[in-house]
Fold this sequence. Notes:
two-stranded antiparallel sheet, alpha+beta, 2 strands, 1 helix, globular
Amino acid sequence: MLPGDSPYEGGLFTGKGWTAVVAENPPAISFLCAECFQKEVAQNHVGTKPRVPVESRVSG
């Protein structure tokens, strides 16, 4: 569930076992049940390591 107007700044999973991943066409998001997520991990389509945002620094 992504409440509020777009673009969404947050979300809430209303059931256990769901996760969200960046879709093949960013900035889209794919929502996967636990079983589907494990299948994607096994096929190396997604990883389980959390991503850390990188801040670009502009000098000047």
